[in-house]
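Team,

Forwarding the record for the chain on the shared tracking sheet. I've put the sequence and predicted structure together so nobody has to dig through attachments.
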Amino acid sequence: MLRKLLKVLAALLALLLWGASPQLSEYPHRGMTPMARVSGPPAISAAARAFDLTPGGGPGKLRVDAFAAFATNDRLYFSRYNRLGMLNRHGYSITPLRDYDVEVSLVDGDALRPLGCRLRGLSPGLKECDLALPDDLPEGDHTLRVALVQRAQARPVVLEMDLPWYRRAWIHVLADTPLVRPGETLQVRALALEAESGRPLAERPGTWTVHDPEGRIRIEEPGRTSALGVHHVAFPLGPDAPEGVWEIRWASGEDVGAVAVEVRRDALPPGTLSLWSDAAWLGPGQGTTVHGVLRSASGAPMPRTPVSLSAEVPGWPPPRDWFQELETDDAGHFTAALSPLPDDLDAPRTLTLSAVATGLGVPIEGSHPLNLSPTPIVAEGRTVLGAALAPGLPNLAYVTVRTPDGRPLADTEVRIRSRWDAVEAPVVARTDADGVAAARLSPRGAVTLSPPPMPARAPPPAPPAFALIDARDIMGARPADRDTLDALGTLVEALEPRCGVLAGTETFHVRLQALSGRVDGVDVPDDALGDCLEAALLGRPAPRGVLGMTLQGREPPHVRLNVHVVEPSRSEDFAFSTVGSRARLAETCLGDEPPPQPLVLAYAARDGRLRILGAEGEAGWPACVRATLEGVPLDGPGWGVVTLTPQAPPPATPPTDATDATRTGFEYLVEAPDGAAAVLRFDEGKPAPLRVEPSEVLLDPGQPFEVRLLRGPDGVLPDTLSFDGTTRNLKGTTAALTAPDQP
């Protein structure tokens, strides 16, 4: 009886302890896991944690928490921790381990590198020590081994923890090409630089990962940088690699660099087109010869290929004869003579010559820049206000003088004088090795600067309405050969007179069937353009077979027709698709001038054809408009009214340059000893309230110099100046300083 009473009292005591003690689950850092019920010596468990461990950065701390579990047969199971120990529901008594020591080492492959650790107690079972890592520890992912030694245990309790050691770094990843095809090999390099100093990080470990367009990791490969901080790797792509944007990453510690590469099966350009000119720059009255060479991807010349040469100058219309149609010779070369530069060029500008080789399935393009200048020298100026001067004040301006092709006018005495103010005294300065001269300009007042009128010149020839982008032999399942491309190019040129105004700007496909040597079947878009192409192609000579063409439309300026169809018996969308789209065919017979008024036609469907019943406003319209619409196929019965409203093409606007707008400013002439002169322009600016001006801009160690504080019209001089890099506060508005001995 007494024994049962004692058990009841013990159970009540356990319930009291249940509410007064924290749960074991609140101490996950102890690393305790449920253990099977066994009998025998105590089981030792421990957990360790390291703080602030940095090679060469002073000692950190290592903290160890250890405890012992003893087997028990007591049926009163406690699941709460207390200072004296614990009886858990698995039948173990757990108590802090007081008498133990640790052996700390770094794992280096199969060897261990001991580290000193003298423990000191913090609480029962919890101890810590000061721990220093070796100064020569290389960067990477290391393992710290902590062996807990206790006299009651024959074997130590071994703990291992990850110890990553990386300095902060900037990771740059570069690929040899932004575009690669499946089956090719991609060359990638990673550069690791220390974040603080920018020095290359040698022997820096990292991991490459290649992610496909869906984000899946296709390749994972470790690597280590060289002595220059660079790691190079080649990734071969399989022939079935999915198309899209792939991402290649190189991760080192917490620092990651990445580069995106597009994988695409599109065919690369079949060749290269190079351009160059005899002259480095052109002045008024000077012409030059432009040379070009067209080669295939293998380097072989491409003879007898048409080439279109065009010219573009921002803000100035180039002469029309600079636009030429050429053809390569047997060696793939071509030349073009540019007429002399007109005298109406107002400022130095850059001419961009562009050449396009067509009729090859894929256009091949090339370009060449050429400088144009109205004067033999070019001058540019900068001040503390940018490209501006403050009137009524002395302005220190740095003027760069060079030839139009970029060569500096070095060690030359130049004279700078106002172009519109005869009272302002000229300034004489000498340029340095880079063609820069320092001059103090004191303009009195700004003048109005107006650009000259834009030269009137004939517009350049319009490009063809249709361009052959690609062609294939459908029966042979291969790209079209050169003879077929030439024949199709002639066929496409014949489409422009009749269908050019309907070209639009879209890319579309045309399928030809010419089994007898003439086009006897076509597959074209189902619209007005398709109807025109079908009528223009049927019966024309063409290479035998079934061919596919991809055409790019370039809509020329022309009189357009806005079509409005009202047909009560059908929906508006259906009426426009059957009548309105065909009404655009009338644009092919309109001239350059639009008719004076809209044309209203009443129609009805008879025998599957459109028949015009009456017209209003037909005066001034060509007779071909009615003839074009009469007889257009019209499905089903119906009648309605179609209104054709002419719209004139937009007028050709001359090129403009926003920088040449009328403004106030200053103009100077920069004159060289040989009589060459250049115009130097500045805007009107306002000085800052305060600015600092040093007497020298380039110093040698120990060289004295002056710093002046300049006040603008609205500025107030302070009483004290403070200079970064010195330990003195200097009084006044002028201070004499000396450069430090070390830069």
